[in-house]
Each structure stands twice: as C-alpha cells, then as structure tokens.
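Please complete every field before forwarding. Incomplete forms are returned to the sender.

SECTION A: IDENTIFIERS
Entry label: holo-148
Bound molecule: magnesium ion
Molecule representation: SMILES string

SECTION B: INPUTS
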Amino acid sequence: MYRPRTIASNAAGLSKADYGGSPSTLCRGCGHNSIASQIIQVAFELSLRPSDVLKLSGIGCSSKSPAYFLGMSHGFNALHGRMPAVATGALAANRRMRAIGVSGDGDTGSIGLGQFKHLLRRNTRMVYVIENNGVYGLTKGQFSATAD
Ligand SMILES: Cc1ncc(C[n+]2csc(CCOP(=O)(O)OP(=O)(O)O)c2C)c(N)n1
Ligand SMILES: [Mg+2]
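SECTION C: PREDICTED COMPLEX
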C-alpha cells in the first residue's frame, strides 16, 4: 500500500512548507501548478538548501511558476525567450549555485529557440523544465511551435 512520506523535517532541518512559494495566480486546474508542487516535493526530499538554488525563467504563465515554489531561493525573471543567456552567465559567475529554469513551449520553442539551442550545445549545468501546453497561454491561447 502506498504511504506518503510523513517526515516533518529533512536533512537540512527544513519542513516541506519551507520550500513553498507565493499562492499561485494561475487558472484553477492549470498543469503548471502541479509541476510547481512536484518541484517543492523534490527539493524537500533532496534537502536542498534554498540559498544554494537559483530560479530562472522568461515570460509566460509557465515563467511565472518560480514565484510559486522555493520562496527562500534566488530568482531572476528574464526577457521573453532570453533566460538561457542569463542562466549561462549566472552559472559561469557562480559555480556553486544549483540552477533550475522554468520555461514554456512558446518561451523555449518559438521566440527563445535561438537561445535554447546554444544552452543545449554548451550543456549548461542546470535543470531546464519546459511546461509544454502547446499554446501561448499568457496571451490567451495562440498556437506555439509545439502546437499540433
Ligand atoms: C518580446 C516579447 N514578445 C512577445 C511577448 C508577448 N508574450 C507574452 S507571454 C507569450 C507567450 C508565452 O507562451 P509560453 O512560453 O508557451 O507560456 P505559457 O503562458 O503557455 O505557459 C508572448 C508571446 C512578450 N511579452 N515579449
Ligand atoms: Mg505554452
């Protein structure tokens, strides 16, 4: 039988609530919210120190997500599609920081494709999450590069 983990604090001495962020302003039921919840769970289980984590994003509903997790970490909200350049610079300047980027299919695959391919080419040392809903959600649903 599945039993959820019930430990109150992790090896960093923090509770799961310590990895939360601001209340989400996204639409009810939006899949972006469940991804933020999983990031909170994983950061808690890995006992990450929030002060070691850098959150990066571009523009879009997905790119708002870092506001909704790891409220005690560092964050930078870049221009639309330009987060890879900011991440590359930040990680070159600070080799100790752990970085997580959250982007959308439009942010990564449309306006940001020119930056994203160089992030991959350089194998930048970060976790890069693409929240692919097939549309430009924030601007009300135009097709993105990943739309059917
Ligand atoms: C330079 C620039 N061009 C266009 C826009 C308008 N714009 C804002 S969000 C967005 C698309 C976001 O889509 P996606 O990355 O898929 O995120 P989602 O909202 O679907 O999570 C666009 C085109 C902008 N903010 N800046
Ligand atoms: Mg999208």
